[in-house]
Amino acid sequence: MITLLINGHSRQVKTAPDTPLLYVLRGELNVMTPKFGCGLAQCGACSVLVDGEEVRACIYPIMALEGKQIITVDGLPARWQQQRALQDDPERLHPVQQAWIDEQVPQCGICQYGMMIKATELLENNPSPSDEDINHAMTVSGPSAHLCRCGAYAAIKDGIHRAAALIKGAELINTKTVEG
Prior knowledge:
Low-confidence stretches: none
Number of helices: 6
Order of helices and strands: EEHEEEHHHHH
Largest sheet: 5 strands, mixed
Number of strands: 5
Shape: globular
Radius of gyration: 16 Å
Mean pLDDT: 94
Strand order of the largest sheet: 2-1-5-3-4
Distance between the termini: 50 Å
Structural class: alpha+beta
């Protein structure tokens, strides 16, 4: 048995150690947000955060994940609340998720969870990205570019900028609360 820490919960899996994480998440643990897109780490639909870095779950073997923090889109709200020392609120979304709703980013939705994971990684490292920073993150910084078959790249970029503004607004509110 291998124990995985997924979205803050310890989960034991019986699958072979060389099984890719995506198949364990979807097939054994019923975590459906990472999507199967290509199976070759070429599209990003299966992206998750592992210790804060985006990885492609379709090729990442579970034996390499024991003791590491795995976050899917489902775990982003709790991650945000923990990072910001916010009161636990099951209704509160991560700013990236809220921005995706506000900007109505998804079209078909296959790539969107991976895009949100990559956007989260980007914003945690660069809270005020330029268009060039976003383009670099989505096309060059991983094993391959994140692909959107619907061509919603402009909406994705708008979503990332909106998320950055939401994060900045939250930081201003927290600063005023602490100072005031």
